[in-house]
Amino acid sequence: MKILDILNVHDSGRIINPATAEGQVHSGMAQGIGAALYEEQLIDPATGRLLNPNLLDYKIPTAMDAPDLKCLFVETDDPSGPYGNKALGEREMLLDTLRDRLGLTSVKRGCEVGECGACTVLLDGVAIDSCLYLTVWCEGATIVTTEGLLARDGTLTPVQQALVDEAAVQCGFCTPGIIMSATEIVGSGKRYTRDEIRKLISGNLCRCTGYQNIVNAVERAVNECADIAERTLAAHADDDAA
Ligand code: FES
Ligand code: FES
Fold first, then answer.
1. What per-residue confidence (pLDDT) applies to 203?
2. What region, left, alpha or beta, does residue 234 occupy, with left being phi > 0 and alpha being psi -120 to 50 degrees?
3. Which of 108, 113, 92 is nearest to 206 (CA)?
4. Is 196 in the pocket of ligand 1 (CB under 6 A)?
5. Is 209 touching ligand 2 by the criterion CB < 6 Å?
6. 97, 183 Cβ separation under 8 angstroms
7. How far is the CA of 184 from the centre of ligand 2 (A)?
8. Ligand nearest to the CA of 207
9. Where are the alpha helices (DSSP H) in 6-144?
10. Angle of helix 158-165 relative to helix 211-241, nearest 10 degrees?
11. Closest ligand 1 atom to Cα of 112
């Protein structure tokens, strides 16, 4: 049997990423062709277990078997889906949403495999690599990027000011990611040794390799914020005692 043409019309909800959505539908169609025409799952009727579970004895379609496929999307809004989407598995990463859709270009596109930390943002206060995090997982979460740290009057945060004061910025590509990681670190209110700080920011690579000044800056911000936390706690203790 030879397939001459095939068209899939898909009720997709709102399309978020057309190229990825098409890819998902193409692969579903190719799987359907395989299942309909020549794949044969042998099931043990007594146990329901698959009897040919590996690729030595179970053949899936190859590129030779998959003809060019066409698909059309019927975009219907689905208020219950993320962004009105009906979950085609479009897998937009948070990095792409923040940079390309929202214009938050402090979030840098580096390795895109979770190695460099250039894309670090805070998700509910926790530093994550946005290149590895699906946007749809962020439903209901608070995302903070470096743009969100700046006060209305332009005042820098203690971490940002420390990076300026310690001359810890060279080309600046890694800086927003380092700011977000350091913001998580100082948010703990704890003090850390220099070795601990080195370890805590080791997920953020700096190609200019200005690590010494970066560690100086994070150490300065950690100590300043710990001082503030301790003074605040002492003031509250005095109030309680009065
Ligand atoms: S771009 Fe995300 S870790 Fe490198
Ligand atoms: S300052 Fe250039 S990569 Fe870090």
1. 96
2. alpha
3. 108
4. no
5. no
6. no
7. 20
8. 2
9. 18-37, 94-96
10. 140
11. 1
Q: How far is CA 99 from CA 2, 11, 80, 106, 124, in A?
A: 44, 28, 25, 8, 19
The highest-level CATH class for domain 7-91 is: alpha beta
For CATH 3.30.365.10, the residue range(s) in the chain are 7-91
Among protein residues, the one whose CA lies closest to atom 4 of ligand 2: 206
The yes-or-no verdict on residue 144 having pLDDT over 90 is yes
User: Does the CB atom of residue 129 touch ligand 1 within 6 A?
Assistant: yes
Read off the tokens for 221. 């911000």
Q: Where in the chain is CATH 1.10.150.120?
A: 95-241
pLDDT bin (cut points 50, 70, 90) of residue 180 is: very high
Instruction: Identify the band that residue 82 occupies on the pLDDT scale cut at 50, 70 and 90.
Output: low
- What is the pLDDT of the chain when averaged over all its residues? 90
CB of 168 shorter than 6 A to ligand 2: no
Tokens of 165: 């004061």
Mutate to test the pocket of ligand 1, among 121, 123, 129 (most ligand atoms within 8 A of CB): 129
| 95-241 CATH | 1.10.150.120
Q: What residue type is assigned to position 28 of the chain?
A: G
